[in-house]
Amino acid sequence: MKLKHCYNYYDFRKLAKKRLPSPVFHYIDGAAEDEVTYQRNASAYNDVDLVPNVLRGVGNVDLSTTIFGKKLNLPFYCSPTALQRLFHYDGERAVAKAAKKLKTMFSVSTLSTIPVEELSLIDTPKMFQFYYHKDKGLNDVILQKVKEAKFDVLALTVDTLVTGNRERDLRTGFTSPPKITWSNLFQYVTKPMWGINFMTRGKFELPLLKDHVNELSNVPMTLGNYFSNFVDRSINWNDAAKLCSDWGGHFALKGIMSVEDAKRAIDIGCTGIIVSNHGGRQLDGSRSSFDQLAEIVDTVGDKIDVIIDGGIHRGTHMIKALSMGAKACGGGRLYLYALAAAGKTGVEKALNIYKTELERDMVLMGCTKISELSRDNLRFRYVA
């Protein structure tokens, strides 16, 4: 299979699986425990039908939306994901450049493999995803570097105080950086181009962390052990409020799934929330993002930007989320498979495919702009 034969999300997944060593692929592809929430994130969209209107004069379609005070040409963006140079040697650099080309937002994780100073030079809206560490000095250093890099939004991830029980990673022995063992050696040697690129395209490291902790950059460690050892699970609403104040700009909480938490986010000064269950990678059995979206929008949608993340594979999924009241949609696997398949070229192609799907779907719905989408377009299938 080649990039030219990739026509959708599922094709990029197949090509990524062909290009990546099994432990690395399953790190992207896997989720927590029985992966029920992971599967439900996508299947929830199939429980809602679209009701189109016709003869509406849809000669021109405007896909733009505004979140965190920034206009995006597309109502979807690249969510923050860690360790991107494990998937392709250009990592976050490739994703940022592709996002710029499509005039949308990209996001950077605390566990980024490209310096924020370099990414700051890419002129498109950008979000930084913040992990709150036990080492308060490290938190201060990260915050200062992100301020200096002039990121537009700081998003505190609130659903990863520990990592979920990701059993695929346990079976494959996935670590960062990769640790080659007798049990997984075959999986790496059968992907020689990945290995050559990993070894020759610059040292793999996490620039924001490397001067404070050796783990994940120089010392192989599972993400589960990293979060248990270094991330502060005692963080509370007061800590989040202080971080919001210290940042002083657009601030979001990523991982909101309850109405109560959505309301409290407004109280501490958030300008946006991201309705997300971390792609099903944390609490298996939690509700899908889409199923939870309506009650959150109904409660706080007129006071704060509500964004949805998780399970979005198609333009029609975006149409349904936007009709439900989300201001924008985000995704990780949405572009990571494409990154693994072909770097910047792959991400650009994937984003263009979603754009084309969305433009076509808007025409078929009889809508010329995002604000014309509403729940009048939707009908739910209720299963007894």
Which helices and strands, and how do they pair?
Layout: H1 9-19, H2 22-29, H3 36-43, E1 48-50, E2 65-67, E3 70-72, E4 76-78, H4 91-102, E5 106-109, H5 116-119, E6 126-130, H6 136-148, E7 153-157, H7 167-172, H8 185-189, H9 192-200, H10 223-230, H11 237-247, E8 250-256, H12 259-267, E9 272-275, H13 289-300, E10 305-309, H14 315-324, E11 328-331, H15 333-365, E12 378-380
Helix pairs in contact: 1-15, 4-15, 12-13, 14-15
Please describe what this structure looks like.
The protein is of the alpha/beta class and 384 residues long. The chain has one domain (3-380): TIM Barrel (Alpha-Beta Barrel), CATH 3.20.20.70. The protein has helices at 9-19, 22-29, 36-43, 91-102, 116-119, 136-148, 167-172, 185-189, 192-200, 223-230, 237-247, 259-267, 289-300, 315-324, 333-365; strands spanning 48-50, 65-67, 70-72, 76-78, 106-109, 126-130, 153-157, 250-256, 272-275, 305-309, 328-331, 378-380. Strand 6, helix 6 (136-148) and strand 7 form a beta-alpha-beta unit.
